[in-house]
Amino acid sequence: MSKILIIDDERAIRRALREILEFEKFDVDEAEDGKQGVEKAVSEEYAIIFCDIKMPNMDGMEVLDALKDAAVESPVIMISGHGTIDTAVQAIKKGAFDFIEKPLDLNRILVTIRNASDRAALVEERKVLKKTVQRFKGTSIIGETPEILQIKSMIEKVAPSDARVLVTGENGTGKELVARSLHDLSNRKDQAFIEVNCAAIPAELIESELFGHEKGAFTSAIKQKKGKFELAEGGTLFLDEIGDMSASAQAKVLRALQENVIQRVGGEKDIKINTRVVAATNKDLRKEIEEGRFREDLYHRLAVILIHVPSLNERREDIPVLAEHFLTMVCNEHGISRKNFSPDALDALKQTDWTGNIRELRNIIERLVILCGETIKGEDVRLFSNPKTVKN
């Protein structure tokens, strides 16, 4: 349920607007002056804020400035009984979404709410897409070895379903790319793809990161926050390195998968979710289960479909095509005319021990592009593929 904040010094206006919004099934909060309204908007997340212009102590224009300074992104709809064209224009210039004159008209209010909600959704989608484009520009699952062809085939079969997938493999093999491909080929492709690196988040914060928290749930919880499960609503949640998740978080994830509901940290209300979960790990979860570090029931919930990504050393025949792909990408990123590999350079790349897998290969290609001439030779690969051999 979307939460709306009403900032107005007139109790009658607050009551009338509350009745309209609650009848339309919105959760409503009130503030009787601008200062109190700013404090609430900063400490809690609201879908929309209605704000009067003429108020004592802090008027609506000052509220707009304060919300902007505090980086509050909620759409603000200004309301006034003394409005003029100049006032409306000034409010819009300061960042207000719309301006409504009193007495309030029901249809105008509902249309404005719908438009504000649509814009907020588009802004959030644009942020996600921008991050996605920046991170995944020019990437795809590249390779023609039997192992990679099998993975591509499995992705095509599994992606249209909502089946949970567990992706296994060493660090740097491309597990995240498999998860992204599953999302891009699914019916959820137009919704968010949210990633959580379970190994990078401290154990005491992972539950807040996944499930969100209510204001005051712990010392630093100064405002309500949605977790990744909610942010991925309708889309895909990628739980990377899930083998590093704490036992407490594992129990909550299990409940979320079983019942499709979550509870924010410090909250008591069940929140229904519609999120597809794809997980990945570089650990042997069977061994983790035997040693009591991972829940077997959670494993079975996650591993409906298993996809194992081979190491680069297990698919050396794909190294030339991967190297050419990264060469083109790196040259474009650095604004450098495209360079070339000599045949012996590709042979040297195939003979290298890739302990860091595809991630290491990409880094080495970037190093070669920056340090070598127009044609990258085998001796260049042997010199620069090991950082210890680099000379000043």
Automatic annotation (TrEMBL):
GO BP annotations listed: phosphorelay signal transduction system; regulation of DNA-templated transcription
MF-aspect GO terms: ATP binding
Modified residue annotations for 4-aspartylphosphate: D52
SMART domains in the cross-refs: AAA, REC
InterPro entries hit by this protein: AAA+_ATPase, AAA_lid_NorR, CheY-like_superfamily, P-loop_NTPase, Sig_transdc_resp-reg_receiver, Sigma_54_int, Sigma_54_int_dom_ATP-bd_2
Pfam families: AAA_lid_14, Response_reg, Sigma54_activat
Sigma-54 factor interaction domain: residues covered: 141-370
The organism of origin for this protein: Taishania pollutisoli
Keywords: ATP-binding, Nucleotide-binding, Phosphoprotein, Transcription, Transcription regulation, Two-component regulatory system
Protein's name in the database: Sigma-54-dependent Fis family transcriptional regulator
